[in-house]
């Protein structure tokens, strides 16, 4: 490498390190500020009741709404305690007077990963009584799933069965529906005795330019998958972390942005996405995917915003070994973490030719698709990373290349001893891809390998993270 290239690489690494450091500092500052606000919300008069604001979050939306709720009540002079649902015990609820809960749903009616323990150990207690508790519940969901707001509904029923009294009827939110969120704010204003609550609207969508589109699976038996690259039209490239999402709005579906996992990091110079052509039940193409892959020409303006996904970010796992598991376009979220580790090590541009330094923790990728001949997305890049040791192990699993179907959970089960060894050495597990089939089967297999309680502990400590859809 020439001296000039070395300096360029060093500059890129320093910029990314500063960016990550700034984002981490901002996150810690927000946490400290939130904690200071929570401490300030505790009642000044001994024995005065505080309102609990609690949340069960999968992608971070419920957590953000809970913080905004607590801030609004605090501004109105109401003493508040803010906590994730996972930290509440039955005794806390039995001693509380008022509780506001924001609960998202994972998949077909399941609790978010962080709330599994609460669902099993608190909601599972037979005969629990909460007769003095007054509850307001905001349930977040997506009507494309048959069990819309399933966990929120189950939580609402459990509170009712335990004798808790509803402050108002449960509010179900379909994909950030602004009218439903406005109803929640109106109830808060009424309860707090104020008409002056802050606006909680999401950040505005910004114009980006579609600068590249590559068909990754020509000849596949499945729907087309494309790699997209987008850059801001006017503003500087925003900050984001590996694991974050973008929300894309297409002209044919205004007001209904679609979430996509980001497959790149800021030093790549663009937001990278992996998008598969979706199909509705009647066979017609999905609006967003069809527009992004077919209707929009290169150079088209795409309205989007970056959204933090704290539940799938690297968090405290930056120096840990990583087990990355996924299928289909779920490779996007895993690729984001691959790119993030390469950038943090200073080898984003040359990792295919430079061996992994010994101080950089290893990574193991298990990825599933249909056929090796057409569906091995980004295989050349992945094989190059494996050749240089950045990926210590790669398990390609192609379900239709043999008479009996084989999926990533089967490869995981076959490698059970290695999974246990990696976890014992501190590895974190990241799962990204389809909810239907893959994610549930992988979770079941990990429970069989590691045990249910140890896997729950990994989830609660941030070492087991999922981004599934």
Uncertain ranges:
5-48
Radius of gyration: 23 Å
Approximate helicity band:
25-40%
Oligomeric state of the chains?
single chain
In terms of DSSP E residues, the strand content is 15-25%
Shape: globular
Q: Main beta sheet: strand number and arrangement?
A: 6 strands, parallel
Number of continuous helical runs: 14
Name the structural class.
Answer: alpha/beta
What does the average pLDDT come to?
88
Number of strands: 17
User: What is the rounded distance between the termini?
Assistant: 42 Å
Outline the structure in words.
- This protein has about 475 residues and is of the alpha/beta class.
- The protein has 14 helices and 17 strands.
- Strands 1, 2, 3, 4, 5 and 6 form a six-stranded parallel beta sheet that branches.
- The radius of gyration is 23 Å and the shape is globular.
- About 10% of the residues have low confidence.
Task: Write a compact overview of the structure shown.
This protein has 469 residues and is α/β, with parallel strands linked by helices. It has helices spanning 3-41, 61-75, 90-95, 116-121, 150-161, 178-192, 287-295, 331-345, 372-375, 379-387, 408-414, 416-424, 435-450, 452-460; strands at residues 51-56, 80-84, 98-104, 134-141, 165-166, 171-174, 206-215, 225-232, 245-249, 258-261, 271-276, 301-307, 322-327, 363-369, 391-398, 428-433, 464-468. The strands form 3 sheets. Strands 1, 2, 3, 4, 5 and 6 form a 6-stranded parallel sheet that branches. A 6-stranded antiparallel sheet has the order 10-9-12-7-8-11. A 5-stranded parallel sheet has the order 15-14-13-16-17, sandwiched between helices.
């Amino acid at each position: 490498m020439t001296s000039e290239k070395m300096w360029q690489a060093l500059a890129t690494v320093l910029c990314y390190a500063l960016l990550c450091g700034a984002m981490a500092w901002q996150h810690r500052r927000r946490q400290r500020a939130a904690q200071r606000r929570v401490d300030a919300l505790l009642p000044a008069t001994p024995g005065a009741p505080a309102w609990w604001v609690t949340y069960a979050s999968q992608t971070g939306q419920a957590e953000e709404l809970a913080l905004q709720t607590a801030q609004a009540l605090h501004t109105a002079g109401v003493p508040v305690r803010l906590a994730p649902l996972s930290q509440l015990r039955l005794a806390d609820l039995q001693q509380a007077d008022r509780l506001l809960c924001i609960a998202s749903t994972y998949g077909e009616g399941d609790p978010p990963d962080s709330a599994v323990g609460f669902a099993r150990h608190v909601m599972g207690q037979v005969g629990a009584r909460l007769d003095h508790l007054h509850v307001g519940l905001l349930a977040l969901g997506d009507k494309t799933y048959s069990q819309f707001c399933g966990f929120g509904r189950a939580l609402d029923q459990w509170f009712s069965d335990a004798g808790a009294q509803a402050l108002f009827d449960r509010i179900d939110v379909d994909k950030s529906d602004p009218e439903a969120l406005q109803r929640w704010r109106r109830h808060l204003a009424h309860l707090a005795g104020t008409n002056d609550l802050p606006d909680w609207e999401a950040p505005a969508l910004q114009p980006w330019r579609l600068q590249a589109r590559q068909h990754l699976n020509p000849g596949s038996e499945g729907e087309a998958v494309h790699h997209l690259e987008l850059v801001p039209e006017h503003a500087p490239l925003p900050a984001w972390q590996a694991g974050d999402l973008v929300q894309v709005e297409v002209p044919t579906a205004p007001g209904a942005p679609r979430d996509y996992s980001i497959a790149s990091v800021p030093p790549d110079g663009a937001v990278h996405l992996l998008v598969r052509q979706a199909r509705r039940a009647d066979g017609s193409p999905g609006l967003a995917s069809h527009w992004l892959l077919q209707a929009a020409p290169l150079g088209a303006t795409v309205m989007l915003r970056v959204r933090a996904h704290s539940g799938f970010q690297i968090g405290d796992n930056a120096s840990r070994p990583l087990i990355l598991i996924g299928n289909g376009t779920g490779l996007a979220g895993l690729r984001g973490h691959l790119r993030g580790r390469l950038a943090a090590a200073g080898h984003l541009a040359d990792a295919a030719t430079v061996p992994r330094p010994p101080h950089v923790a290893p990574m193991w990728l298990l990825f599933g698709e249909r056929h090796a001949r057409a569906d091995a997305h980004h295989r050349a890049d992945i094989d190059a990373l494996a050749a240089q040791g950045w990926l210590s192990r790669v398990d390609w699993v192609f379900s239709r290349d043999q008479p009996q179907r084989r999926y990533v959970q089967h490869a995981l089960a076959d490698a059970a001893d290695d999974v246990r060894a990696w976890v014992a050495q501190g590895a974190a597990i990241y799962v990204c891809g389809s909810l239907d089939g893959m994610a549930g089967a992988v979770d079941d297999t990990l429970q069989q390998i590691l045990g249910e309680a140890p896997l729950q502990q990994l989830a609660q400590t941030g070492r087991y993270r999922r981004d599934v859809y």
